[in-house]
Amino acid sequence: MPVEEDSNAKAKKDGEVLEQFLKIGLDERTAQNVLANSKVTVNLLEVIREAEIQEGCGKATGNLLYTVSTKYPTNALEHRPRLLKYVISNKIKSNPQLEAAFGYLSVVGSDKFDADIFEDKCGIGIDISPDVIKVTVERVLQNNMELILAQRYRMNVGGLLGQVRELQPWADGKIVKETKAAADTPKMDSDKITPEDSNPFAIFPKPQENITVHTEIFFSDGSIWRPRNSREKLQKHLYATGGKVFTRFPPEPNGYLHVGHAKAMFVDFGLAQETGGYCYLRYDDTNPDAEKLEYIEHIQEIIGWMGWKPFKVGFDDASLFLYHTFFSNNVFECNGSDSFVLEMQITFSSDYFQELYDLAVQLIKRGHAYVDHQTSDEIKEYREKKLDSPWRDRPVAESLKLFDDMRRGMIEEGKATLRMKQDMKNDNFNMYDLIAYRIKFTTHPHAGDKWCIYPSYDYTHCIVDSLENITHSLCTLEFESRRASYYWLLEALDMYLPYVWEYSRLNVSNTVLSKRKLNRLVTENWVDGWDDPRLMTLAALRRRGASPEALNAFCRGVGITRSDNIIRMDLLEHFIRDDLNKNARRSMVVLNPLKVIITNFKDSVVEELEAKSWPEGKDGDPSSTYKVPLTRVVYIEKSDFRLVNSKEFYGLSPGKSVLLRYAYPIKCIDVIFKENTQEVIEIHAEYDQAKTTKPKGVLHWVAEPSAGVDPLKIEVRLFDKLFLSENPGELDDWLADLNPNSKVVIEDALAVPALKHAKIGDKFQFERIGYFCVDRDTTAEKLVFNRTVTLRSSYPKDLVPQS
What superkingdom heads the lineage (predicted)? Predict the structure, then answer.
């Protein structure tokens, strides 16, 4: 009884909390998802209490409060009540304003808050009139008119709105969209402008524009750095790159790539491709403990499968010396004429270990780094207390000697690190004297045993970006707080500053994309390897039957924005389904067979019928059809028969007729039950050879290829969402949320004979069932098919980007 009382009390409390969330305007589904996450629930209730709106508020305000509860920087909690007053008073009324507030509050101390600077950075009090919005929208449309007329109904509405947002960041988004829609209407008739086949890269500046201040770095002593490229430094960079865009895709080889990496590839390789520039594949291999050759090989192979290639550039004599200066680690080949070819398949951060070490020595000499002996726990404690390390001010010569000792393996692992001398009292935890080098007596998968000290990510990636003359260093929003450290280091070394831009990471519902969580799923055998079709790794999606074209279309469809949200799995499935509808051959398979004997069909007769391989036959193309045998014994789905007919049921029932697809109408005349049960095991029917009957229902079916010979048996695996909740990664016990029905195996499905020639990777639509792909577990004895997606989309049609 006490257990039941506790359960009732919890249900009552959950109901009260849910009611509170609905009062502030959250929709039912969002409120339920918040309730499933204890951490977010506590945060949101605390925000509601601080804002003093327990009695409720408008939907727009409530959504902003929800964003505060989920994304507010943890190092600026003392500022949160102040921010909430701005939200409740409607002075901050949009997500761009809120993001600007987060950015300012995360780097300013409680005693350094300046209301005038804050309000200026957040656009508070700036009222952009509808007339100004109209002029801005018309300007953007005019600037893009050539592209609009070329792409017509496929033009990227997201890209156009992004350009308006760049010009008027504080304009009301709703008015912008309404104004744009009105401006579009005369030119675009009544058709929708949609994001597919569009140019989402218009938001990025040109390399020649990289002359402005990148960010303001606030220090605890009140000083401010404003890093920017000098004109001389930018000209040197542009001379080296020829003014081209240079990007990089920098995966860490510590696991298999997932669908989030597909978006990163689309951004990095896509921007380079769109602008006629070049993109590196650069392995971020600074942690030898977690990296494997298996992952290195997988990454290169899967990038090729996705359709992306690291650049290959041709040079004339005049360019050779220039590029040799900047790309000294690569091989040049003469092609027998006066020009040369630089072929850059991949680079590794470890290729630059010597340059990185030399620059670390320079950093020490400039007084910007020191050797430290604190343990990781001591570093954490000192960071929280904002205290300097006891070794922070040791002499430069001493740090140089100790750093050399570290390099030569004369200091034990864990006994020393090289730290950047940044700002231990800074409210931005990513400016707290970050570690640049640590000792690891570990063989490196690419560099071998040459080094026993390894640079950190925070030290490496910005320097290598600069060494490779990257124009656009693109990363996801969780790295935004590292921007100050990125530019601090390059400024401290007087190096070229790439343009950094953060975009929202790709979060997909009902799955996890954290490599740590993916690794647990794989190593603890919750799934069947990195390519288990229930995962969202690219290897798994390929095995499940998704194509790179579908995945890239999905990435283009969701766009490149700074709005952090969860994309429903249904939208990804829409793009996969749309691609398969065009490219998957049709066939017939019965998953759960029910035997039907056509009593008026001669026992020895095999009638060969013609079935369509595609929705619309290809005239003159033999592959547009395939042969299907019809015999006295056929099989239909058990779900296509009911003992009691109803108006909405289009299957077979006693006394009722249906059409066998590509064949004849049949009528049920008798039902055979399993002895002493109501389980139907066989149907007797008659067929209408003259086809005078016109039934509404059409069923797929499979026949015995000849009398007494069983149809082709195949194994079919039905995959569903791996997790029950939309955002399982935020749950305290996320493994408990695994969907027990995420994989259902049907071992003895029946298929038409034409399927016996299917090869691994072939894709089909099983009529009336869904889209399927031949799995690699297929053997000569048995075909195995994975369900890729169901036949029909559950995603709202009006929200789906159209092609």
Answer: Eukaryota
**Smallest Cα–Cα separation from 392: which of 367, 374, 372?**
372
Does residue 29 carry a catalytic annotation?
A: no
Q: What is the DSSP string of 500-536?
A: EEEE---EETTS---HHHHHHHHHTTSSSSTT-TTS-
Output the six-digit token pair for 669. 């005349």
Catalytic (active site) residue 384? no
252 is catalytic: yes
Could you count the other beta carbons within 10 Å of the beta carbon of residue 80?
18
Out of 252, 549, 686, 730, the active site residue is 252
Pairing relationship of beta strands 332-334 and 339-343 according to DSSP bridges: antiparallel
The pLDDT tens digits of the residues spanning 526-556 come to: 999 999 999 999 999 999 999 999 999 999 9
Residue type, 773: C
Close Cβ partners of 716 (under 8 Å, ≥ 6 residues apart): 589, 591, 745, 746, 749, 772, 784, 785, 787
Residue 219 CB contacts under 8 Å (≥ 6 apart), including other chains = 225, 423, 426
Contact present, 435 and 456 (Cβ < 8 Å): yes
Instruction: For residue 344, give Cα distances in angstroms to 248, 292, 299, 310, 459.
Output: 12, 22, 16, 7, 24
| Catalytic one of 177, 244, 392, 505 | 505
Choose among 291, 327, 328: nearest CA to 446.
Answer: 291
pLDDT digits (tens, 9 = 90+) for 255-289: 999 999 999 999 999 999 999 999 999 999 999 98
Average pLDDT of the residues in 563-571: 87
- Structural contact between residues 595 and 671, judged by C-beta atoms closer than 8 angstroms: no
**Which of 383, 515, 520, 595 is labelled catalytic?**
515
Phi-psi region of 241 (alpha: psi -120 to 50; beta: other; left: phi over 0): alpha
pLDDT, average across residues 348-353? 94
